[in-house]
UniProtKB/TrEMBL annotation:
Species classification: Eukaryota, Metazoa, Chordata, Craniata, Vertebrata
Function of the protein: Choline transporter.
Native source species: Serilophus lunatus
GO molecular function: antiporter activity
Major place of residence: membrane
Name of the protein: Choline transporter-like protein
Transmembrane segments: 21-43, 212-232, 239-257, 295-316, 337-359, 432-457, 478-498, 542-565, 577-601, 617-637
Membrane topology: Multi-pass membrane protein
Length: 686
């Protein structure tokens, strides 16, 4: 690309700018309106109760207020039947408490009154036992059960290693045979997992109730530590970088020394002089450590790496110094725009709104199917499998032609156009989530870039900065560049949706034996992963150029890309130096706060030993503090990283636009001018 030319009117982010990428802006507005319509339609047809509450054979909810069975639990009718929904589902007021079969209840006076509590409302006690079981009006047997999530599951318990249900080890299966209760174990295994999970969740909730304020204190400590670290980078960035470089050189030097000592120690030992080619491939890798040639190869590799690093340091020392100076300058910029440290909260809030809308719409779409009833019968019937309506079924011709036919709930579905295109609406919901989430992130990046660019292009810092640089940048981004942000986030969203689709296909093809399909899918996943990373990098720098110059997305992306390519070595050095410092900062903050939380919650700090609350699981608040500290540190360093990237692009533009003369003075800080041996004529460099 062509280097930037001097523009006497350019004094930082352009205020007199126009709207960019209007078509994309209109497209985003139309898509949002469509997304709202989809949400309204989903909320109109959907019913999240289907996710929580089971249904009986008629599709009516069990245990839901305002329904005929608002008092009920869903009864699992037999040990062979899966949890609801199953071919027969019955809502009962109370789960059964003892073993009983219908045949025994039918023969025993007084027992039938208890058993009928677990039969359908149309149960006719005048029928024979065989007819009742054939018409599926009552379950063949009852098992002692416990309610869980509005469903009755066998009450399995272990006493001294013996599996029992209702204090019994065997049960009557309703066919005159005794069976071992272990046969019920597999069917109720998932229920027990859910029960244990619920108990675990209750204990974790108890831990949170007694430790929440200490967790907040830990997160405040992490916030203060992050802020202090950013301030200290102004003074310690150079020291930390050079200490890291020296440590790497020393570690490699020790590695070379260790390899030489091992090489010398093996001299004269039997079998140590066998070559690697003669030994061949061995599954036990420890065999290679007994060969002198192995340690010689390690020593040569480490020597080459050491030499390459030393040569890079010799030739790139000035660029490393520039990267350190930019990091120090970023610390000053953040200090002058302190409100930028709170801006990630706005981005986080908007992202939470996107996630909440996407999740609720997905739930309502997935539960917007209607109850479909089918004709079930034992004998041959021309209406078998056809849809029916329970309200009019008994008066229809079906019961006349097929006396044993029943109209039972089959599944949730629908045959309208809306139900046929539910999968399309779900896909649109996922796509819009990615688009809006990327748009929110882009809005945050453009706002921060505009604020920090105002700092760099202020000739007298901070006197020439606008009064509220962050709010000014936010207003410019929304007013003029919504279309450009929509364009960049749309491109990224398309790639991410393709990646999600590939992951779904890979999940579905796991059991397939087609090696070529798996290989092709893996290649596509790798390519689109690389493409997503590249687009994120390009978008980030394009947003910086948009914030400064107010150009459209394509022009900004092209200018940013060519500007970076003209300074590719500086880009690589700055990227690695900042990555190291951010990694070190996150590790230091999260590690320090995590260790402090561990010693506090495990009562190992004598000064506050009695203050720490008693806990069921001490790892609950510790993990919460660690995860929260990482998110806080990541939020602070994301602002800092955006500041470094913005100042870096401004620095490269400054070098191309200006020459230090009175007409074209440099805007960079005196430290950077001193490093580059640049001066502004007539301006002191102090």
């Amino acid at each position: 690309g062509t280097p930037q030319k001097y523009d006497p009117t350019f004094k930082g982010p352009i205020y007199d700018r126009g709207c960019t990428d209007i078509i994309c802006c209109v497209l985003l507005v139309v898509a949002i309106v469509g997304y709202v319509v989809v949400g309204v339609v989903a909320w109109t047809h959907g019913d999240p109760r289907k996710v929580i509450h089971p249904t009986d054979s008629r599709g009516q909810f069990c245990g839901q207020q305002g329904t005929p069975n608002e008092w009920g639990e869903c009864l699992v009718p037999s040990p062979a039947a899966p949890p609801c929904p199953s071919p027969i589902q019955i809502c009962v007021s109370k789960c059964p408490e003892r073993y009983m079969t219908y045949l025994n209840a039918y023969r025993t006076p007084g027992e039938l009154g208890y058993y009928r509590n677990f039969c359908v409302p149309e149960y006719n006690p005048g029928k024979t036992a065989i007819e009742v079981l054939k018409d599926k009006e009552c379950p063949a047997m009852l098992i002692p059960s416990t309610p869980l999530a509005r469903r009755c599951f066998p009450a399995i318990q272990a006493k001294k290693g013996v599996i029992m249900v209702g204090n019994e080890t065997t049960y009557d299966d309703g066919r005159g045979h005794r069976r071992n209760v272990t046969e019920l174990l597999e069917g109720a295994k998932k229920a027990n997992v859910v029960l244990e999970t619920r108990q675990l969740a209750m204990k974790i909730f108890e831990d949170y109730t007694v430790s929440w304020y200490w967790i907040i204190i830990g997160l405040v400590i992490a916030m203060v530590a992050s802020l202090v670290f950013i301030v200290l980078l102004r003074f310690l960035a150079g020291i930390m970088v050079w200490v890291m470089i020296v440590m790497v050189i020393l570690v490699l030097g020790y590695g070379i020394f260790h390899c030489y000592m091992e090489y010398a120690k093996l001299k004269g030992e039997a079998g140590s002089d066998v070559s690697l080619t003669d030994l061949g491939f061995q599954t036990d890798l420890r065999v290679y450590l007994h060969l002198r040639q192995t340690w010689l190869a390690f020593m040569i590799i480490l020597c080459v790496v050491e030499l390459v690093i030393i040569l890079l340091l010799i030739f790139l020392r000035k660029r490393i110094l520039i990267a350190i100076a930019l990091i120090k300058e970023a610390s000053r910029a953040v200090g002058h725009v302190m409100s930028s440290l709170l801006f990630p909260l706005c981005t986080f809030f908007l992202l939470c709104l996107c996630i909440a809308y996407w999740a609720s719409t997905a739930v309502f779409l997935s539960t917007s199917n209607e109850a479909v009833y089918k004709v079930f019968n034992e004998s041959a019937c021309p209406f078998s499998g056809q849809t029916c309506r329970p309200e009019t079924f008994n008066t229809s011709n079906v019961t006349k032609l097929c006396p044993d036919a029943q109209c039972l709930f089959a599944f949730y579905g629908g045959e309208t156009a809306y139900h046929k295109y539910l999968i399309v609406l779900q896909f649109f919901n996922v796509f819009m989530f990615f688009w809006l989430a990327n748009f929110v992130i882009a809005l945050g990046q453009v706002t921060l870039a505009g604020a920090f660019a105002s700092y760099y292009w202020a000739f007298k810092k901070p006197d020439d900065m606008p009064a509220f640089p962050l709010f000014s940048a936010f207003g410019r981004a929304l007013r003029y560049h919504t279309g450009s942000l929509a364009f960049g986030s749309l491109v990224l969203a398309i790639v991410q949706v393709i990646r999600v689709t590939l992951e779904y296909l890979d999940h579905r093809l796991k059991a397939a034996e087609n090696k070529f399909a798996k290989f092709l899918l893996s290649c596509l996943k790798c390519c689109f992963w690389c493409l997503e990373k590249f687009i994120k990098f390009l978008n980030r720098n394009a947003y910086i150029m948009i914030a400064i110059y107010g150009t459209n997305f394509c022009t900004s992306a092209r200018n940013a890309f060519f500007l970076l390519m003209r300074n590719i070595i500086r880009v690589a050095v700055l990227d690695k130096v900042t990555d190291f410092l951010f990694f070190l900062g996150k590790l230091l903050i999260v590690g320090s706060v995590g260790i402090l939380a561990f010693f506090f919650f495990t009562h190992r700090i004598k000064l506050v030993q009695d203050t720490a609350p008693p806990l069921n699981y001490y790892w609950v608040p510790i993990l919460t503090v660690i995860v929260g500290s990482y998110l806080i540190a990541h939020g602070f360093f994301s602002v800092y990283g955006m500041c470094v990237d913005t100042l870096f692009l401004c620095f490269l533009e400054d070098l191309e636009r200006n020459d230090g003369s009175a007409e074209k003075p440099y805007f960079m800080s005196p430290n950077l001018r001193k490093l580059l041996k640049k001066t502004n004529k007539g301006q002191p460099d102090a």
